[in-house]
UniProtKB/TrEMBL annotation:
It is a multi-pass membrane protein. It comes from the Bacteria. This is Permease. Keywords: Cell membrane, Membrane, Transmembrane, Transmembrane helix. The keyword ATP-binding does not apply. It comes from Fusobacterium pseudoperiodonticum.
Amino acid sequence: MIKKLDIYISKYFIKYFLMNIIGFMGVFLLAQTFKIIKYINQGKLVGGEIFDYIINLLPKMFVETAPLSVLLAGLITISIMASNLEIVSLKTSGIRFLRIVRAPLIIAFIISLLVFFVNNSIYTKSLAKINFYRKGEIDASLRLPTTKENAFLINNIDGYIYLMGNIDRESGLAEKIEIVVYENEISKPVEIITAQSGKYDKDNKKWLLSGVNIYNVETKKTITKVEYDSDRFIEDPNNFIRAAAEDPRMLTIKELKKTIKEQKNIGEDTRIYLSELAKRYSFPFASFIVAFIGLSISSKYVRGGRTTLNLVICVVAGYGYYLVSGAFEAMSLNGILNPFISSWIPNILYFIIGMYFMNRAEY
């Protein structure tokens, strides 16, 4: 009997989830129609590119509408069973409500994993394609600058901090150079090297410095040299410069982690990348968490008016998640909250609400 129940409820849950996701994606696509027409008139989309552009919109639609689709699928499935007195009958026979909805919860978790995969792989590539069609070329902000002022780079492995007034990554020339050598802790420097200029030797892969002063912190003595080079200082000029505004949404989790490390090493702000990384882990599981609310809020037999109210509550709760999530994301970008904490707060809040309704549904 239990297996038949799982199959029965799973069939309807999947059915209504697919109906909801297709419906929401259709509305989303309809809203994009005017933009698509504008791009066609501007000559940005021609022939098969129109179909390719629409196809690349689908991953974004799926990722963003999956939580609301799961929420409503759970609501509709249980509402129908409750109105047919099936939920009451199952409870009377001694089956707990949590056991009744176990199969849909497992499906919701699988959907969350699917959202995680799509969001981290397919969506990142499709967004890059969409941006290419919209602008007609690679965004200038994603091109690596040739020069940079006040360049900073830290090598935590070897214990060096580089500060350069100006650096040209193509010519390998740099001015107003300062290198701080430390052991174990940055606050405990061993040697401070300053140079008027420097050039990166691409053949030997090391820096050749001119007008050099080497200050030994322990002995407090300074050595002056016209030219100086060392096999210790081998950082490539390209490592000092990164793209000004690489869209974090187009990066996979692996690429985000790499970018965060590189940006930290050159002293750049990493909040936008940390926020996106945290969101990659938290948002996909919203589909699983909101399932508790959708499946439990209409577990009791009610007449028409209350059913409509439950539907309104679910829709408000669904859209409310996006608002709460956006608010906490803004707080993390402004440095008020840790990005990983702020990204999981909406999930925790909705999980508590879901557990409250699940507890009520048992009685």
